[in-house]
């Protein structure tokens, strides 16, 4: 059983920076991490990637050969990757024994709520390689300073969650810079917990550009609230709480633990207060037990 994260989000939300920082943090707490770059437009990687999609297909070559723009080229690349999923599977198999996987995906949001190719790639890997993955959806925190953009981010988060059908964590990135974008209309908790969106209506009505879409905005807010599935956690230098939340969502914390259903329930419902190093030791024992079974 292999665990990992699918890192997505709009361009500029900090996906590559996140993968770099997350891989360093996980290494520090005793996990072997492999970063898989599946963004063919990402040509300046700050991390050492174990698998790079550019070894299979390059966006620049696709754009020239097929006379496509960046968006069309990215869709083509994802289609090509889906058709050549065996290539990716072969690259990943040597990593499955003892690595935690971070998948760095492109920033084109249409890939994750309109098109099926990226989803198909993820689902095929999960089925073939027995992966346990959590989607980490990054959203730039500056969108909170504009009610219209914030509602758009909520819609994107909701549609992506419903489309991918995986454990899903929405993260406000660059939270340390949020005050530089302007004063928030409400406390940060309002935006992370996605509280009563009707309070945003007054601020939207004061915007001449948004006033004529008042009825549409009201209906969209009701859709978001009726589903009641979207909330956010924050991403700052204190990344450990986010890691614990991810571990809980994809089951990493439960792997190798011999306990009753009641004990599992207590862990699932309890606070995020476990010890990383204890978990790492449990995982190591779990992997060694698997090796011994294979040897027998």
From TrEMBL:
Pfam families the UniProt entry points to: ATP_bind_1 (PF03029)
GO CC annotation: cytoplasm
GO molecular function, one term: GTPase activity
Keyword Lipid biosynthesis appears in the UniProt entry: no
Keywords: GTP-binding, Hydrolase, Nucleotide-binding
Keyword Hydrolase annotated: yes
Signal peptide residue numbers: none
Function, in words: Small GTPase required for proper localization of RNA polymerase II and III (RNAPII and RNAPIII). May act at an RNAP assembly step prior to nuclear import.
Subunit description: Binds to RNA polymerase II (RNAPII).
Family: Belongs to the GPN-loop GTPase family.
Protein name as annotated: GPN-loop GTPase 2
Species of provenance: Cicer arietinum
